[in-house]
Amino acid sequence: MKEIKAVIRPNKLADLRDALVLLPGFPGMTVTKVEGCSAPSRHVPARTKIKDELTDYTHKVRVEIVAPDEVAEVIFQRITEVAQTGHYGDGLVWITDIHRAAFIFKTTPGPE
Prior knowledge:
The chain is of the alpha+beta class. It has helices at 13-20, 40-43, 50-55, 69-83, and strands at 2-8, 30-36, 58-67, 91-97.
């Protein structure tokens, strides 16, 4: 099992969802609203005021997917294709190994 995480622009989420649900074996995803900033040397002019540094965060969306090994790379590739705009700040995607995972659900009828 693999966990695929991506931090992307919010306006790309609908396109990404539409592209991922078409993949055979897509297991679903969790989406969280997040904020962040990149390293100042990447593309942002140096800040001169501490207030600017503390409030210079951009809104992003974090997508988390736990998937079988055989579909993880396809999901990774689809995210990088769909989420890019060609500008700095498009986001980041990465894969980590999952040693064990299980769905949590009730399998037998019984008292609540």
